[in-house]
Amino acid sequence: MITYDPLWETMRRKGITTYTLIKKYAFSRGTLDSLKQGRNISTATLNDLCRILSCKVEEVLCYLPDEPPSEEANTKKRKKTV
């Protein structure tokens, strides 16, 4: 799972607000909503954020491994495919 939690700390540290991203850098509210909701963003958006914030990718997003499916979930999955 990808999380954008590092982005908010980086923005705070750099003194950039969501208002600044919208007004000065023409970010859409939809893109910011996607970031807040943890939805997918494009690599172009990721590139823009790194450029604006003068930061590395890991200061914008973080990869967290998904939990392995439980045995119960695997059993249900097998029953559906049979």
TrEMBL record:
<dbReference type="InterPro" id="IPR010982">
    <property type="entry name" value="Lambda_DNA-bd_dom_sf"/>
</dbReference>
<protein>
    <submittedName>
        <fullName>Helix-turn-helix transcriptional regulator</fullName>
    </submittedName>
</protein>
<dbReference type="Pfam" id="PF13443">
    <property type="entry name" value="HTH_26"/>
</dbReference>
<feature type="domain" description="HTH cro/C1-type">
    <location>
        <begin position="7"/>
        <end position="66"/>
    </location>
</feature>
<dbReference type="InterPro" id="IPR001387">
    <property type="entry name" value="Cro/C1-type_HTH"/>
</dbReference>
<dbReference type="GO" id="GO:0003677">
    <property type="term" value="F:DNA binding"/>
</dbReference>
